[in-house]
Design brief:
Radius of gyration: 16 Å
CATH topology: TIM Barrel
Strand content: 15-25%
Distance between the termini: 26 Å
Number of domains: 1
Low-confidence stretches: none
CATH superfamily: Aldolase class I
Largest sheet: 7 strands, parallel
Shape: globular
Helix content: 40-55%
Mean pLDDT: 97
Order of helices and strands: HEHEHEHEHEEHEHHEHEHH
CATH class: Alpha Beta
């Protein structure tokens, strides 16, 4: 899929699950549980010393076992990381920040990059570079749905993905979409540590299915 197709998929689904772990078995199981729930767009987050090795295994797993899964990499903070994960097969890149050297790498490789923005100036810079989807992070701490509504008025063509503090409830998700987000990113609250420790992946699948229903309702 090309960058615009993946950006459209973000908007269509309204949802980007994000996860990281140092155990490849847990990562595979989480990916499979998400896939079984209907997820076809997933961010593995680059936050651990072995995240690159885990990503390589997950890329292979998706290619062999999860047809149609679009697998991206999150917490990309510099050009070196961007190049490294693109070579490893990342379908898209997400960052907690906005940085020109990452934009240049993504553009050179024709990869979707969703930068993290926290101010109107950063959103404006993304718009200036021709980017039409940005991550608002940390969304809750920046002011929540009210912040989204305020910046959406100034940047009506920009697609906002709220990440950081999104609660997995119908009410909270509904409020984000009313505020004007195109999507929400949800991490730890999708994958309770107790369920993972006990191998209760069917619970994860059911939980994600409910959240996807909340998102569909919130989008209407």
């Amino acid at each position: 899929m090309n960058p615009q197709q993946i950006a459209s998929l973000v908007q269509q689904t309204g949802f980007v699950p994000l996860f990281t772990h140092t155990d490849i078995s847990i990562c595979r199981n989480v990916l499979k549980a998400s896939y079984d729930a209907g997820v076809r767009l997933f961010e593995f987050t680059n936050r651990n010393a072995n995240s690159f090795d885990i990503f390589i295994e997950l890329r292979k797993y998706c290619s062999e076992q999860l047809p149609g899964m679009v697998l991206g990499i999150g917490t990309i903070k510099n050009a070196q990381q961007a190049n490294q994960f693109i070579r490893a097969g990342a379908d898209f890149l997400i960052s907690p920040l906005i940085l020109e050297e990452i934009q240049q790498v993504a553009a050179a490789h024709k990869k979707l990059w969703i930068p993290g923005c926290a101010t109107a100036s950063e959103i404006g810079l993304a718009e200036y570079w021709g980017i039409d989807t940005v991550k608002i992070f940390p969304a809750r701490q920046l002011g929540g749905p009210a912040f989204i509504k305020a910046v959406k008025a100034v940047f009506p063509a920009m697609r906002f993905m709220a990440t950081g503090g999104v609660e997995p409830t119908a009410e909270d998700i509904g409020n984000w979409f009313k505020g004007g987000v195109a999507a929400v990113g949800i991490g730890s609250q999708l994958f309770p540590a107790e369920w993972l420790a006990n191998g209760e992946y069917a619970l994860v699948t059911g939980h994600i299915k409910k959240i996807m229903q909340y998102i569909e309702k919130g989008k209407t």
